[in-house]
Amino acid sequence: MSVDFIVGIFRRVLNTPEVKADSDFFELGGDSLLATRVLSAIAREFGVELLYDEFAQNPSPVELFEKVAATVP
Fold it and tell me: Taking the chain, what is the end-to-end CA distance rounded to the nearest angstrom?
């Protein structure tokens, strides 16, 4: 489990290589529909279902990774 995986999801969904661990999804052009794709990919890979509100409050790969890591035993 690594933040790099979530960076990869962001890059794929946003169709840009410009994503870093601290990049803000919404500042890079993401919207709520694209966010659901990110959340689905995280759920498939890590088995953790995050809410959209959690994503909106933590819109970077590193912040999402911290949320995931906190819920995975």
Answer: 12
Q: Tell me which residue range forms the domain holding 11.
A: 3-71
Query: Rounded CA gap, 34 and 71, in Å?
Result: 23
The residue behind tokens 């919404």 is 26
Contact between residue 33 and residue 65 where contact means Cβ atoms under 8 Å apart = no
pLDDT of res. 73: 67
> What are 35-57's pLDDT values in tens digits?
999 999 999 999 999 999 999 99
Work out how many domains the chain is built from and give that number. Answer: 1
Predicted TM-score (pTM) above 0.85: yes
CA distances from 35 to 5, 12, 57, 73 (A): 15, 12, 12, 25
